[in-house]
Design a protein that fits this description.
Elements lengths: L1 E6 L3 H16 L3 E3 L7 E6 L4 H17 L4 E6 H5 L2 H4 L4 E4 L6 H9 L30 E4 L1 E2 L10 H5 L3 E2 L2 H11 L5 E5 L14 H7 L6 E4 L9 H9 L5 E3 L7 H6 L6 H14 L4 E8 L6 H14 L3 E6 L16 H26 L3 E10 L2 E6 L4 E4 L6 E5 L3 E2 L2 E2 L1
Parallel strand pairs: 1-2, 1-3, 3-4, 4-5, 6-9, 9-10, 11-12, 12-13
Antiparallel strand pairs: 7-8, 14-15, 14-17, 15-16, 18-19
Helix pairs in contact: 1-5, 8-9, 12-13
Length: 413
Amino acid sequence: MKISVLTLGCKVNECESRSIITALKEAGQDVIEEILPADYYVINTCSVTNEADRKSRQMIGKATKANPNAKIFVCGCSSERNPKIYEKYKNVVHISGNANKYDVFKCIVSDISECFSKNNINNLPLVFEELPTPYHAKTRDYIKIQDGCNNFCSYCIIPYVRGRSRSRTIDSILSEVKISSKRTKEIVLTGIDVSSYGKDIGSSLTELVKSLSDFPIRKRLSSFECTVITDELLSALKSSHFCDHFHLSLQSGSDKTLKAMNRRYDTQTYFNIVQKIRSYFPNAGITTDVITGFPTETEKDFLDTLSFIKTVGFSDIHVFPYSEREGTKASKLPQLPMCERRARARELLKIKEESKKSFLLKQIGQELSVYYEESENGVSCGYAENYTKVYGDGIPGQIQTKIISKIFEEGVK
């Protein structure tokens, strides 16, 4: 029996899909992660934007085309949010959400007819759900430490489809890190809202970071809210040999827009945190997310965002035109035309390229430690600790130091 597991969206979804794959492989199943002919397809969906929903539905069509007789299992954020959309597909035999994802494995392996139901949406859990250790697929391992979110930003659907924030115990995390440390040279701690880690179990992100200090592998955190950055956390990150890359979601450089988004900081607070990070990690790569065309965003608000981004000096920026999500507070506001949202995104992308180039120029002459991941046409590429993409002659799977001489393609060489 061949099973294809297809994943859309974030690294948390990837971790969960790889846990399902682990269980399937241990049960002797033939598992792939491509749209090729298979008996079963597991589609782990995403709903962060309208486009993510569309791609999730589109994946069903692609799977059906690969095998018109296949049985399709749908799970994840999009089906959690709107399971009825998936009921119309005749090949879809099982619809679930984000709770009990491991049940997908049980249903496929047992092939029990009772599992084939178009309504398997369970209540989201109140505590962290343990899954099998994800199998090792790429150069680095992603380790899920947390799920859910309590922030309720006015534009975001994720708290409604992932539930409240819940943390994995440190002992459980350490058990997986021990496994990963034997098969990779770098791990990334990930979650829906990593910054909230520990609050529900009497622990903290700082405590978790300190507990990892004895593992002689490169360590990263996938993202932060700037409000969680303290001297204590930065000191722990430095002494525990975490990489100097910080993904700090900004979303807007306008204080008025940040307030309307229900973000819990202003631009001055954010800038002060960036300065604090650089006092500990002078060559840190600081990346961010920015939404353009939020309903209340005026032309002045957008210009304020451009100005603030230039002031911060990000190493890279992920730019998203605002996508209204039904059920959120922002969806009830008067919406800007999509053409305006996209026009602002294009303008911001120009600033992104300028900011990225400026950061790359600062790497010239630096000696960077590079974890090489792949080789193509005789040139290897990988990432430095500050997440600069580096091209060279290193061996994939190995960490080597390199003195940077110039900008090359999407990074440096």
